[in-house]
Amino acid sequence: MTSSTVLLLLLSVLLAGSVSFFQYFYKTKIHSHSVWVLAFLRFIGVFGLLLLLINPIITHKTYETQKIPLPIVVDNSSSIKELKFDTETQNLVKEITQNSKLKDQYAVQVFRFSEEVESNDTIDFKGKQSRLDKIGKRLKQQFKNTIHPTILLTDGNQTQGNDYVYTFEENKPIFPVVLGDTTSVLDLKISNLNANKYAFYKNKFPVEIFVTYSGNQKLAASLTVSQGSKTLHTQLVDFSAQKKSQIISVLLPADQVGVQIFKAQINTTQPEKNKYNNSKNFAVEIIDQKTEIALVSSINHPDLGALKRAIESNEQRKVTLLNVLQNPSLDKFNVVVFYQPNATFKPLWEYAQNKGLNTWIITGLHTDFEFLNQNQSHFLFKMSSQKEDYLASFSTQFNLFSIDNLGFENFPPLQNPFGTITSTQNGNTLLNSRVRNVNLEAPLLSYIEQAGKRNVYLFGENIWKWRMQSHLDENSFEKFDIFTDKTIQFLASNSSRKSLIVTHENFYNSGDAIEIEAQYFNKNFEFDTKARLTITLQNKNTNQIKSYDLIRAANSFKVNLDGLAAGSYSFSVTENNSKTTYNGFFEVLDFDMEKQFVNPDYAKLNQLANLTNGTIYLSNQVKDLISVLTETELYKPIQKEIVKKTPIIDWVWLLMIIVLALALEWFIRKYNGLL
After folding, report:
1. Rounded distance, CA 511 to CA 530, Å?
2. Which phi and psi (to 5°) does residue 460 adopt?
3. CB count, 10 Å around CB of 418?
4. Which of 431, 294, 459, 233 is nearest to 363 (CA)?
5. Which H helix or E strand runs over 80?
C-alpha cells in the first residue's frame, strides 16, 4: 500500500469522524447512550463509502511447498505373470509407494500400462499387449514443463507400437527397474512369420518363417509346417553361437477353398524354459476364382488357340470355343471374348449386354465395323477396305493394374483395316497404335469401366505372333500368359456398387483389436446417417450367439469385438429399416504375444536409461534407487510465495456493512423519534 493511499485513509477517518461529531455531538441537546451508537453507525457508513472511493489494493502473501512429481509406471501386461514376477512386482510397488522419505520429498503417483496408460494403482497383470511408447506421450501431457524423475517397472518387452526409447523426453530421467530373470537361457523362437492373406486354389503360396535362437552351443532343430494332423513341410535347421537367426522360405499347396489354419513349429531335444514361442499359427484364405470364359468366333484363326492356351495357363480359367453359327448358350460363362464380331453375333451380343457380362472385343480383317458402330457406344469406327499393319507403343500412364512392358514395341504388327478409331468415352489405354515410326492418336489395346461394367478392346488380329515373339525373347510363354491373365482378371472382377458394404479381416490374432466397419447407402448411393445397423455374432465352436449395435462414426458405423476367444466366428450385419444383410466370417487365432518372452529386454531398457540420463536397476536394487532419489539435491521440494492482490471494491461484504450500518442508523433514529 503506497504512502498516498495511507494518507487518504487517515483523511477518510478524520472526515468520517467529523461528520459523526457534527451530526450527533455538536450543539446537540441529546445525551442518551443511543447517540454513541448512532454516531458509530454514521462513522462506519461514511468511512465505508470513502474507502470504496479510495479503493486501496490489499496484498496477501502465502507460502506453498510444491513437491516434485514422481510417476511410478508399472507394467500391467500378462508377460510379467508369464515371467513369474507378478508377486514380486506388487511387493516392489508397495515398497516404493509406502516409503516415507519418498512421500515427504515427492508427489508420488502410480500409473499402470498395457494397451493404454492409466492413472491406477490396481495391478492385476491382465493386459493383452504392451505399449511402452504411450508412456512417454502420457507423461509429456500430464507433467508438461516440469523436470522430474520417473520409475519404470517393466520387462521392457513391447508387443505393439513404435520404438519406445525415443518417445521419452531426454531431460527427464527414467529409472527402469527390470522385472524378470536376466539370466540367459536356451530358447528357440519363431519371432515372425510372413504369409499373404490370400492365395488361389490349386496354386502354391510362399511363407517366410523367422526363427531365432538364444544360446551359445551348437543346436539342431526341426521345423515343421502342418495343417491339423497333416504335415506339409519338414526341414532341419542348425544354430550356433555365431548363427542365431534364420529366415526359412516354404511353398505350401492351396488345396482347400476357404480360410485355412496352418501351424509353424520349431522343436529340439534340448530342454527349454518357454515352449509357447516355439510355434505360431497363421491363416490364409484360399480363393476359388474358377472363371468360365466363352471365346466366340465365326471363323477359324490361330489367335483362338493362342488365346485359349494363354488364358488356361492359369488353372482357375477354363476357355470354351464357341462357333456363333451353332447358336451356343452363354448361361454358364463369366466373361465373353468376341473375336471379330459381325451381324451373326447379334443374339449373343444382346444376351451378354442384358446379363451384364464383361466382354473382350478383338477386331481384325473379318470384323463388321458397321455392326460395332450400331451395338456399342465406346468407339466410333470409320474404316476402309485396305488393311494396315499396326505396331504397339506402351503407355506408362496406364494405372488400372500393374503391368510390365513385355517389349511390345518389338512385337510383330497386328493387322486391322485402315481407318480412324475415335473414342467416345473415357477409357484407359495400355497400348497405342503406331504405323512404322509414326505414332497415331488411336488406341490399340484399351480398357473401359463404366457403371460397374467392364470392356476390353484389341484392334488387330494375329496376337498369336505376340505370344510366339515373347517365347523367343524369354524362352517361355510365362510373361505373355501373365499379361493375358491380368486382362481376364480385370474382366472377371466386377465392381458393381452395393448398398451395404462391410469391411473386416478374415482372421485376427488373440489380443488384436477386432473392429468391424460398415457403410449403408440409400438409393442415390449417399451415405445414410439414419441407418440402424446391428451385428449378430456366432461362435461356431460353442454355438453361442450375441448381438450388438453398430455405433456411428464419421463416415461409417463401427463395432468393437475385442476379447473374443480363439475360434471360428460367423456374423451377419443387418440394416433394420431395409432388412439389407451382409454375411461374413472370421477366425481368431490362438496366439498370445505376451507369452513369447523368456527374458526381459535389459539392453533396450539400459538404452532408455542412458538416453535420458537415468540409471537402470535390477529388482533387488530398489533400495539403492530409493536412496538415490531421496539424497539427490536435484529434486528437492520447492517453496513458492503466492502474492494475492485484491482491490477493496471487490469486497462485497464491505458494501453489505455500509448498507447495514446506514439502515440501522435510520431505524434507531426512527424508533427514537429523531426523524
Report:
1. 32
2. 155, 145
3. 13
4. 459
5. helix 79-82
H/E element, 275 = none
Q: Write out the E strands in 473-577.
A: 500-503, 507-509, 515-520, 533-539, 545-549, 551-552, 557-560, 567-575
Query: Which residues have CB under 8 Å from 98's CB, separation 6+?
Result: none
Please enumerate in sequence order all residues whose Cβ is within 8 A of that of 71, keeping only pairs 6 or more positions apart, or say none.
Answer: 109, 110, 111, 139, 142, 143, 148, 150, 151
Report the chain's C-alpha Rg in angstroms. Answer: 42
pTM (two decimals):
0.57
Cβ(394)–Cβ(430) below 8 Å: yes
Please say whether the beta carbons of 389 and 415 come within 8 A: yes
The three cell numbers locating residue 562: 475385442
Res. 232: pLDDT tops 60: yes
The Cα–Cα gap between 462 and 310 comes to: 14
CA distance linking residue 629 with residue 623, whole number of Å: 10
> What kind and span of H or E run contains 212?
strand 204-214
Cβ atoms within 10 Å of 117's Cβ, excluding its own: 22
Query: Rounded to the nearest 10 degrees, how much is the dihedral formed by the CA atoms of 25, 30, 36, 39?
Result: -50
The tens digit of pLDDT for each residue in 26-73 reads: 766 666 677 788 888 888 888 888 888 888 888 877 777 788 899 999
Query: Out of 17-21, 108-112, 465-469, which region has the weakest mean confidence (pLDDT)?
Result: 17-21
Whole-angstrom Cα distance, residue 132 to residue 115?
9
In the Cβ-directed half-sphere of 389, how many Cα atoms lie within 13 Å?
Answer: 6
